[in-house]
Amino acid sequence: MNQEIERKYLVQGESYKQMAVAHHHICQGYISREKTGTVRVRITDDKAYLTIKGKPTAGHFARYEWEKEIDVADAVELMKLCQGTIIDKTRWIVPAAENIVQDCSTSFNIVQHGLIWEVDEFHGKYEGLVVAEIELESEEQVVELPDFIGKEVTDDRRYYNANM
User: Is 3-157 in CATH node 3.90.380.10?
Assistant: First the structure.
């Protein structure tokens, strides 16, 4: 089963832009937004994806995620079925510093490599909103927060794209 374990934070300042190794233009909409999950269509630069996400269980932030690349022309047509606002944003890719992770089952610290901050700078209706996400390997994983990270909003559904 595919699972996404993600934490979300508000961003302060623009230092993430200098730290970024890439950025992408994203346009996305939601075909379905139900209490049990969402169906999203996304165009990122010159590629498109259809994604199904489940709802996190109470007290957790892990959830089911399935994604498949689709033809861009199909994604453009699927956007016509979307409910609510079509989200327009720039995603900045910022490698996380080498992170020390405490393994709660053994009480040892482990050096974790390869984590990526995805910093979304919203345009249009949500101009000025900047949110950073990081995908983790477990809900217990601890990461070092860079200076641009502000308040955690993982549990605040207002900051989930499907609710915008």
Answer: no
